[in-house]
TrEMBL record:
Domain Aminotransferase class V: 36-331
Organism encoding this protein: Halomonas litopenaei
Keyword terms: Aminotransferase, Pyridoxal phosphate, Transferase
Protein name according to UniProt: Serine--glyoxylate aminotransferase
Cofactor: pyridoxal 5'-phosphate
Family to which this protein belongs: Belongs to the class-V pyridoxal-phosphate-dependent aminotransferase family.
Pfam families linked to this entry: Aminotran_5
Domain of life according to the entry: Bacteria
């Protein structure tokens, strides 16, 4: 019952879908138009002309009316053939789901990772990828697949290091990167990092509702798609690229979400991608100040790769993180991310992306602190006070006021 709370708005502080700014909601409320008509073609051409700026690429970006999982499948189906080997790295739940998807498509994925629970607390280990590729003297591995921002743990891996590892091994494998939750919140550079397929989605840093996803592709990926033999039709790049020439799609695209995407891109580019990144890093630092003051552990154990998008908060032994989340939801109308897969019940996740500001994050942290105390978790100190100190001592360089 969404009317349960008589006043105020719900706090959606999960790491995607993120809260959608009013400006984007308004843009999406325009009438749906003929997707084969001239107005649509103009919109499509404008969008396709500028979407690459968010991925930092001059190459084509395919837009699908699908969730991120579809774009995962598209990246594999367009570049690979049945039975081919791919090297994937276990950083958490989403890397595991992508691995399962590769298996189901009939590929032979190898899942590299740190031993035990360690893998879910660190980023991709580029040296392990380099060592494995060096062993592959017959070059049977056709693609390296990594998750940039692992949403289940709050770890943002160093993709440039993965590129260097592939180059250092002198290996021709494609580099496929999932930045479904990293794009437009964490630093991301498709061309500069030599990524062959970048996979992303609408419902995280782009501040849109779920429902569109992306494949940004390199020349090498495009060439691979001409040889690839995995079955595909809806996902096939060739027909989409052809229709995109005129600003159209081969099927009915997600018109109103595309209005929203157009607005989101303008908002992000007006702010400047460097400012967008700095804004998320500052929010993340404020949230981590709170978690540290509580005396609780952050799931990511390597400060070099703390996520600017979300923070995973580990519960003390014997505390069920989902019970804490449930209490916070019921008492304070605040949604926090659940622990996923191996982390179920052990942690909750605080999203700091989308339509947020210092004060909405302060409210979120207040909700967490009240809920933790009500759940009987003993805290070392006040996270709210620590975050207030952080945000007041580190003013935002600018406050965007569109
Ligand atoms: N990869 C990552 C890193 C994600 O965070 C998600 C969703 O949260 C997915 C893949 C799957 O995307 P979707 O749920 O949109 O299909």
């Amino acid at each position: 019952n969404l009317d349960f709370h008589p006043t105020g708005r719900h706090f959606l502080q999960i790491p995607g879908p993120s809260p959608v700014p009013d400006r984007i909601l308004r843009a999406m409320s325009l009438p749906t138009i003929d997707h084969r008509g001239p107005e649509f073609g103009a919109l499509g051409r404008e969008l396709l002309g500028k979407v690459g700026k968010i991925f930092k690429t001059d190459k084509p970006v395919i837009i699908y009316p699908a969730s991120g999982t579809g774009a995962w499948e598209a990246a594999l189906a367009n570049t690979l053939s049945p039975g081919e080997q791919v090297l994937m790295f276990e950083t958490g739940h989403f890397a595991s789901l992508w691995h399962r998807l590769a298996l189901r498509l009939g590929l032979e994925p190898e899942f590299l990772g740190l031993p035990g629970a360690e893998g879910w607390r660190h980023g991709v280990q580029a040296d392990m990828i380099e060592a494995r590729l060096k062993q592959d003297t017959e070059q049977r591995i056709k693609a390296v697949c990594v998750v940039h921002n692992e949403t289940s743990t709050g770890v943002t891996s160093d993709i440039a290091a993965v590129r260097r590892a592939i180059d250092a091994a002198g290996h021709p494998a494609l580099l496929l990167v999932d930045t479904i939750s990293g794009l437009a919140s964490a630093d991301y550079r498709h061309d500069e990092w030599g990524v062959d397929v970048t996979i992303s989605g609408s419902q995280k840093g782009l501040m849109l509702p779920p429902g569109i996803s992306f494949n940004a592709i390199s020349d090498k990926a495009l060439a691979a798609s001409r040889e690839s033999r995995l079955p595909k039709s809806f996902w096939a790049w060739d027909e989409i690229l052809e229709a995109n020439q005129g600003g159209y799609w081969p099927y009915t695209p997600n018109t109103n979400l595309l209005y929203g995407l157009n607005e989101a891109i303008d908002m992000l580019l007006d702010e400047g991608m460097d400012n967008v990144l700095a804004r998320h890093q500052r929010w993340a630092a404020g949230v981590r100040a709170a978690v540290n003051a509580w005396g609780l552990e952050i799931q990511c154990q390597d400060p070099e790769v703390y996520s600017p998008v979300l923070t995973g908060v580990v519960m003390p032994e014997g505390v069920d993180a989902d019970a804490v989340r449930k209490l916070i939801y019921e008492r304070f109308d605040l949604s926090l991310g659940t622990g996923l897969g191996k982390a179920k019940g052990r942690m909750f996740r605080i999203g700091h992306l989308g339509d947020c500001n210092d004060l909405t994050l302060m409210a979120t942290l207040a909700g967490c602190e009240m809920g933790l105390k009500l759940s009987g978790v003993s805290l070392a100190g006040s996270g709210v006070e620590a975050a207030m100190a952080y945000f007041s001592e580190n003013p935002a360089p600018h406050v965007a006021r569109p």
